[in-house]
Design brief:
By secondary structure, the chain is an alpha/beta fold. It has a domain of about 80 residues: Oxidized Rhodanese, domain 1. It is built from six helices and five strands; from the N terminus they run αβαβαβαβαβα. Strands 1-5-4-2-3 form a five-stranded parallel sheet. The chain is globular and about 35 Å long.
Length: about 120
């Protein structure tokens, strides 16, 4: 997908303030069977087409509204991914502004996960 210049500028401006991990980092973390709190922040229709196993869905449009109910402890480590790592970077920045201390955006997102051969859960029809 071709992103617009101002959107890219916004994402780049928050990347200096957030933590990111690679797809390889996430795979290693998940392989360790560590309890990993992983949220897919894509739109509902994207989630419905497939997602990373163990991920929970909390779309970018509602994450600020619902995160505190789901995760009241601001010290909890939270991983976020979207389609390519742009929206999750913005969501990570927002959650940090809300006081969450350990938010990590997955650079490469779902697209990177698929390209790396990662397992995908696709809801049955």
């Amino acid at each position: 997908m071709q992103h617009n210049p101002r959107f890219l500028q916004l994402v780049e401006s928050v990347r200096t303030n957030i933590r990111e991990c690679s797809i390889a980092d996430l795979k290693l973390l998940l392989e360790k069977k560590s309890p990993v709190l992983l949220f897919d922040v894509r739109e509902d229709h994207e989630w419905a087409k497939g997602h990373i196993p163990t991920a929970k869905h909390l779309g970018r449009g509602i994450i600020e509204r619902d995160i505190e109910t789901l995760i009241p402890d601001a010290e909890t480590e939270i991983y976020l991914y979207c389609g390519g790592g742009f929206r999750s970077a913005l969501a990570a920045d927002t959650l940090q502004k809300m006081g969450y201390m350990h938010v990590i955006s997955v650079d490469g997102g779902f697209r990177g996960w698929k390209e790396s051969g990662g397992e995908i859960i696709t809801p049955s029809a």
